[in-house]
Task: inverse folding
């Protein structure tokens, strides 16, 4: 049981690095065409091409659930849940809190919330794929905590 909790928490933490890596080198790299509409909206739809990225991690998470289900990987459930939990946190912070795709958490105004908003605003000041900054989501550089 303790190993599963440890693996779940470790997976969640590793996912912040994976989000940073895939955002910086994949979304702002060879798959920029899918991510570009997130920086500069070029359509009238509520959905963005950028939303397709969640499918990749959903498939990976489901894959670990299946590896566990079929007794191939005993910690597959913990890994799958860690990926899912990070995806849920990312969706909550990025899509709901920052971009207000759903009108929730509008009044959150604590130190961490302000730092997350500042860091993401700095990321979005660049509308092209070059010269970006702040590619992570939950771990925010200390400079954005300053008033």
Result:
């Amino acid at each position: 049981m303790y190993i599963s909790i440890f693996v779940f928490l470790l997976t969640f933490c590793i996912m912040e690095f994976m989000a940073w890596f895939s955002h910086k080198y994949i979304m702002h790299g060879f798959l920029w065409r899918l991510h570009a509409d997130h920086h500069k909206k070029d359509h009238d739809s509520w959905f963005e091409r950028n939303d397709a990225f969640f499918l990749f991690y959903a498939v990976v998470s489901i894959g670990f659930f299946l590896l566990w289900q079929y007794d191939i990987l005993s910690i597959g459930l913990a890994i799958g849940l860690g990926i899912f939990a990070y995806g849920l946190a990312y969706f909550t912070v990025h899509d709901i809190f920052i971009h207000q795709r759903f009108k929730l958490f509008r009044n959150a105004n604590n130190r961490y919330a302000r730092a997350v908003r500042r860091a993401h605003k700095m990321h979005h000041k660049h509308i092209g794929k070059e010269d970006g900054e702040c590619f992570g989501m939950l771990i925010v550089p200390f400079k954005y905590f300053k008033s």
Notes: DSSP finds five helices and no strands in the chain. The longest helix spans residues 2-30.
